[in-house]
Structures are given as structure tokens and as C-alpha cells.
Amino acid sequence: MRIVSATGREDIATVYIADLGSGKLVEFVESTQPPLPRERKWVLIVSVLFGCPVKCLMCDAGDDYKGKLSKEELFAQIDYLVRKRFPQGDVPVEKFKIQFARMGEPALNTAVLDVLDEIQDRYRIPGFLPSISTVAPMGTDGFFERLLDVKRRKYSGGRFQLQFSIHTTDQTQRDRMVPVKKWGFDRIAQYVDRFHTEGDKKVTLNFALAEGMPVDAGVLRAHFSPEKFVIKITPINPTHRAMENGLSSYVDPYDGNRTYETVEALRSAGYEVILSIGEVEENRIGSNCGQFVMRHLRGAQTAGRGAYAYWG
Q1: How high is the pLDDT of residue 142?
Q2: What pLDDT is attached to residue 302?
Q3: What is the average pLDDT across 133-153?
Q4: What is the pLDDT of residue 256?
């Protein structure tokens, strides 16, 4: 693997573009969570596909799908970042999180599960917390069955983070935002009944929430128990595709003190709600969810406020 470019800030996030050979380019990210130092929390975000066939309306990675990364190509991203910081492979970080979420839907690549099965044999990572965020495409039952097995054997007791990205409770709008066939709410809930056991982290329902996209607490309560699910609401980041598709963020990333009717309604319905507003500087770096530097560098000029500013 050859690093083609790297840009960012040491104290926030860095985006790496790498050539895996034969002209196959991939992006991956390392980040911290200010004010926490790297020794307290270190996050790696790796790509699992070359492009993505899902093409979510807010995600810049949904172009030019060219297949799956192999297990060793996934490990190449992780190994580069781990050895760069910790050459011996000992990662003395209190919370060492790897998100399989930079580019590509993880449930479409079973090599992700190979990595989860083997990674603790490659490195000493006592604080390791793997994270999978998925839209749960149809036809991926085999992935989720094996994920259940890996999690039970190696990541029980609160050592795994699973997230379903659903974005709205309106099924027509959900199909527009995530334009592939996918599990319905009942199917997600049935799986989580098997996945979530005592001591596990609650499973996250993620809403990258756009203006006009309803989140009905009654609909959620009909399917998802607050005992097993936590709600996370994030901004729509200022990506090229969000601008092209006319999506405006319900959450203002520049106003951390604002209250939101949707958040309060969900809390009143008994849900733990995380209003997740990260560092705005990450939009400028291009490291936030839905951002994809290579699309920006191909010449698109429609990204939102300050996005990709570090890349010209």
C-alpha cells in the first residue's frame, strides 16, 4: 500500500488516500475527540468497498463501485495507522475504536468479519471497540448471522457497537434516502432481540436528519424497545451529494446549545437520545460521515459551507 496523500490536523483528524495497487484508491481516517487526548480515545475509520452501490442521498462515496476490499486490504489500512503510532502493535488507548464506515456498506463484504475474528491476534488492543454501521441491505442475512457468532465469541459484554442507519420513520422517504432494498423495522428489531444480551451496549438507530424527514416516536416505540435501542441524531454533513439532492440539515452543527422538538419528543417517549455534533473543522478536513475526498478532487464544486477546504 502506498500513501498518495494525507491532509488534516493532528489534534482532530487526518484523511489518508492510498493506492492499493492496479490503480485502486481507498480512503481511511484517524481521529481524536477533543478535548480527550489520543491516549483516551483514538478512532480509525476504514473503507470496506471501492465506492458503494447503495448511493445514499447524502453520501459522496456512492459513485463508481468497483468491488470489495480483501481481508488483507482492510488490514493494510489498520496496520498503517497502528504501526505509525505504535510500531510494536501494542495500542495502550483507553478506547480504541475502529469504524468500518469510510467507504462502502459493511454488510456487503464478509471480509469485515474475517478482520473482526482475527484482529485481536494481530495487535494487543485491550481497549478495542469495533463499530459497524449498516443500512441492512436485503440479501445479507449470511453476514448478520456470522456477525452474531463473532460478537458472541469475542465481543460480548459491551465491547461491540452496532448501528442501523434509518434516517426517518417515513418509509417512502427512507426509500428515497437509502435507495436499495433493505430490512424493514420489524426485521431489524427481530435481529436485535437475538443480538443484544445483558451487558451489551444498546444498538443505535442513527438519523442523519434532514429538514422535512419525520422521526415519529410512536412508530419507533411500535418496533424498538428503549431497553435495547438508543437514538442518535446527527447533522447532514455538507457533502456534494447532499447539496445536489437539496438536503438541508435539521441539526445546526454551528449551534451546540439549540434544542430540537424531535429530540425532546423522543426523550419523552423514553429513549436515550444522543445529539451527536462533532468538530465542524472535520467538514473542512473532509473526515466526517458521508464525505469522500476523491469525489471532491474530481472537480465537483457543489459542497456546502467550508467542506473539503483543506483540499483546495
Answers
A1: 98
A2: 64
A3: 98
A4: 79
User: Which has more confidence, 161 or 307?
Assistant: 161
The domain total for the chain is 1
For 72, the 3-state DSSP assignment is helix
Provide the mean pLDDT of the chain. 95
Could you tell me which residues come within 8 angstroms of residue 270 by beta carbon, excluding any fewer than 6 positions away?
Answer: 221, 226
Instruction: Note the pLDDT of residue 257.
Output: 83
Residue 170's domain comprises: 2-311
Q: Which whole-number Å values give the CA distances from 78 to 208, 240, 241, in the listed order? A: 26, 27, 28
pTM of the model: 0.95
Q: How far apart are CA 307 and CA 197, in angstroms?
A: 40
**Contact at 8 Å (CB) between 112 and 73?**
no
Question: Residues of 188-217 as b/e, b for ≥16 C-beta within 10 angstroms?
Answer: bbebbeebbeeebbbbbbbbbbbeebebeb
Here the cell at position 111 is 471480509
**Residue of 108, 103, 133, 21 lying closest to 292 (CA atoms):** 103
Residue 283 belongs to a domain with what CATH number? 3.20.20.70
Q: In the 8-state DSSP scheme, what is residue 71?
A: H
3-state DSSP call for residue 232? strand
* Three cell numbers, residue 48: 470496506
